[in-house]
User: Which sequence fits this backbone?
């Protein structure tokens, strides 16, 4: 029998390897150009998708470039938004109103080395001048153009605001806008704590366009407290000049006095001073009195107030409902002014500390008395002997109106003819209107409150009251923007603390226990 043929494995492997080699050689050959295949590839779905993607990318890039070019030409007040917590670049409504009413061109010249001009100030100036076509800004480097200092009669690092129509100009030191902390200045750190661009520029524009300046005298000689730097600055912005006046050394109020302020007298006034102040009010003058903790509740000063239907009570006022963090003597009064003398307030929140109380009488033919600030119904008048519950007046305003009789009938007739068109005259003579405004505490404008709680309306309210009594004066007391940490003022802080510390944690504990108990039963 023949044995089956056994294939040679080596030969088979060799043949397979040879085939593989031949196939490999065929793959490596350069293929010919195929037009049909090329057309098919360009018309494929993959190619079309790729083309659309590239076109979309090019279109987006073109749109982005166009949008950036257009945005670059927009005014600064449109293309930049202030999202800072202290709103440094925010321009107040008062400034916008002044700028909108401009009829003359105002030139703002910044004289400083441009490379060292703070970006915050530069940005604000650009946003500010963009609000009106009547405003223009120019930055001049005194190093490159030294003659500019002589031309504007100033030094470097200043801003000159001028109106060619009136020929008036105002110079603002940049350090008055970029206010440094005093201590950091001496230590060389140069920390900026306040930014006052809005207030300084608007005040300067108002002055160069011809705003009238008023004169306010500050009574002295009775232990009065000096006005804080903040209040003095706010008065200056509203074109109000201040000067001390010792009533004990004068027989009458100066003729240029538009208002007299007593800031926290601690001793009584004399009989002569009482007569001088009373005569000043009845002749059309304006007086503001801010009581202190030590102002005597009896004597000449108290008698002067009583003659205008205001009684100064003894003791201090507490409020169990409207107070700061459980301090019953730190009160948030209710602003109840019906005459509108306190003006518009942004928050409507005012704080006073250790305030005195007033009792108001009835208005009459010559005297109209009204309350401006009161406690809640849970107020207390606290003395060493008693505690009286109720609502108490913390600030009041009196308007005195009377007709002055002239000794010369012809003068009287002439005066009546001159004023008859205004409706401010009577057959007996010219009508005079005097104003007396009293606050139960000088703390309403004290730095202990106005500096620590800048979100309150203390200074705004006081300036509104003052400018309203002065007449023909617009309140331009725009406060500087603080760059430091601001503290919130919370009414009824005790109740909120109890809620946050006890009630909310207790609610979570109860909810957690209920959830655990249900899971345990399952």
Assistant:
């Amino acid at each position: 029998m023949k044995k089956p043929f056994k294939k040679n494995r080596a030969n088979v492997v060799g043949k397979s390897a040879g085939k593989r080699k031949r196939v490999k050689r065929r793959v490596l050959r350069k293929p010919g150009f195929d037009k049909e295949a090329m057309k098919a590839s360009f018309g494929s779905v993959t190619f079309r998708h790729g083309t659309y993607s590239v076109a979309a990318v090019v279109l987006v890039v073109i749109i982005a470039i166009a949008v950036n070019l257009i945005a670059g030409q927009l005014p600064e007040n449109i293309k930049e938004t202030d999202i800072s917590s202290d709103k440094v670049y925010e321009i107040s409504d008062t400034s916008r109103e002044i700028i909108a009413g401009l009829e003359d061109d105002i030139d703002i010249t910044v004289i400083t080395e441009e490379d060292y001009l703070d970006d915050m100030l530069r940005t604000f100036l650009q946003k500010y001048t963009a609000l009106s076509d009547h405003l223009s800004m120019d930055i001049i480097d005194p190093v490159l153009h030294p003659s500019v200092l002589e031309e504007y009669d100033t030094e470097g690092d200043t801003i000159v605001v001028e109106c060619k129509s009136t020929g008036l100009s105002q110079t603002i030191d940049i350090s008055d806008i970029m206010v440094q902390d005093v201590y950091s200045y001496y230590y060389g750190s140069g920390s900026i704590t306040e930014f006052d661009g809005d207030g300084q520029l608007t005040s300067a524009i108002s002055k160069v366009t011809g705003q009238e300046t008023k004169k306010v005298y500050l009574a002295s000689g009775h232990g009065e407290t000096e006005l804080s730097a903040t209040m003095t600055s706010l008065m200056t912005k509203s074109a109000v000049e201040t000067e001390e006046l010792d009533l004990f050394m004068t027989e009458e109020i100066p003729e240029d006095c538009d208002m007299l302020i007593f800031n926290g007298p601690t001793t009584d006034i004399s009989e002569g001073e009482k007569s001088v102040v009373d005569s000043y009010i009845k002749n059309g003058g304006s007086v503001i009195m801010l009581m202190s903790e030590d102002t005597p509740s009896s004597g000449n000063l108290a008698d002067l107030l009583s003659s205008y239907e205001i009684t100064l009570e003894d003791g201090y006022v507490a409020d169990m409902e409207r107070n700061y963090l459980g301090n019953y003597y730190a009160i948030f009064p209710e602003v109840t002014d019906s005459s509108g003398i306190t003006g518009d307030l942004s928050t409507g929140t005012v704080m006073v500390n250790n305030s005195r109380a007033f009792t108001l009488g009835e208005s009459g033919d010559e005297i109209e008395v009204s309350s401006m600030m009161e406690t809640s119904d849970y107020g207390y008048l606290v003395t060493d002997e008693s505690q009286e519950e109720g609502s108490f007046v913390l600030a009041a305003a009196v308007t005195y109106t009377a007709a002055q009789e002239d000794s010369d009938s012809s003068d009287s007739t002439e005066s009546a003819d001159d004023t008859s068109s205004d409706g401010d005259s009577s057959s007996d003579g010219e009508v005079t209107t005097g104003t007396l405004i009293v606050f139960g505490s000088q703390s309403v404008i004290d730095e202990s409150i106005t500096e620590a709680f800048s979100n309150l309306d203390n200074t705004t309210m006081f300036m509104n009251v003052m400018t309203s009594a002065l007449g023909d004066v617009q309140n331009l007391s725009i406060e500087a923007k603080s760059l430091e940490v601001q503290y919130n003022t919370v009414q009824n802080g005790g109740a909120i603390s109890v809620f946050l510390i006890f009630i909310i944690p207790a609610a979570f504990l109860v909810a957690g226990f209920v959830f655990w108990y249900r899971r345990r039963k399952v």
Q: What stands out?
A: The first strand starts at residue 106 and ends at 111. Residues 9-19, 23-29, 407-427 have pLDDT under 50 and may be disordered. Residues 493-521 form the longest helix (29 residues). Residues 9 and 43 are 51 Å apart (CA to CA).
